[in-house]
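To: structure subgroup
Subject: Chain for Friday's discussion

All,

I'm putting the inputs and outputs inline so they're searchable in the archive.
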Amino acid sequence: MSPPHTGQFFARVLCRQLLLVMRRPIEMGNPLLFFAMVIVLFPLGLGPAPDKLANFAPGLLWITALLSNLLTSDAVFRSDFDDGSLEQLMLAPQPLFLSSLSYILAHWLTTGFLLALVSPVFALMLNLPISALGTLILSLLLGTAVLSLLGGIGAALTVGLKRGGMLISLLILPFYMPVLIFGAAAVQAAVTGTPPGPYLAILGAMLSLAIALAPLAIATGLRISLDA
């Protein structure tokens, strides 16, 4: 039987990862629960003043989305490293960076994509104007994809370590900062009536660069971790 073509292989790995996540709904629900808890608790600490909540909403939504992504980055390759599946992927005729990209896509679909879909509900709780909801969703779709790719690099480098979660934070948090800055700035611009297009364009450029380079870096990091 001939090996599957590259596209078929990518789709199979992606479906496998999504199926594994569906079998562990708690792991998929943890980022959403964390996101919801922070957004709900924040008005209790700040007070119910609508103007204050609206001013803090863009930054708060983006910071919470970033931390929710960081919460799950450590587990992207962990289970497959423990059961030896990653070693089998290295032996496959298809390039490892393609398999890595399918892992990251599955992670984004079950974290960043879901967060972007539910974010309008929590944005309205923070009194974010309805006119800014479209920009919020689009910025989160672009930005969380970049965060997943960057988080995958950290996960690949630390997958062989017993306690790699804190090390991931130290490694990739500085690279998260530009995404946070431009993502929150895009939403803030929409709130104030300024065109958010330039900020969204920068996020799109970041995503294009990350898609081009991050899978190669992830594949290299996995080889280093497996060899070690």
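Points worth raising on Friday:
The chain has a mean pLDDT of 85.
Residues 6-227 form one domain.

D.
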